[in-house]
Amino acid sequence: MELNDLLLGKKIDPAGVIVFRHRPSGPDLNKVFPLIAADGTDLFNHRPCRWRKNG
Prior knowledge:
This protein is mostly helical. The chain has helices spanning 3-9, 27-39, 41-44.
């Protein structure tokens, strides 16, 4: 199963989706990042803004 399959299953057009993936570059934060992500899922499960096409 791929992300496109999941999106289509929820009737979301994959062509209209942008996915960003970020991993901290600092070694100290990199060590604790999995713990922060596991403990603070509400931090990662929201959209801070809407992306708009220019034009």
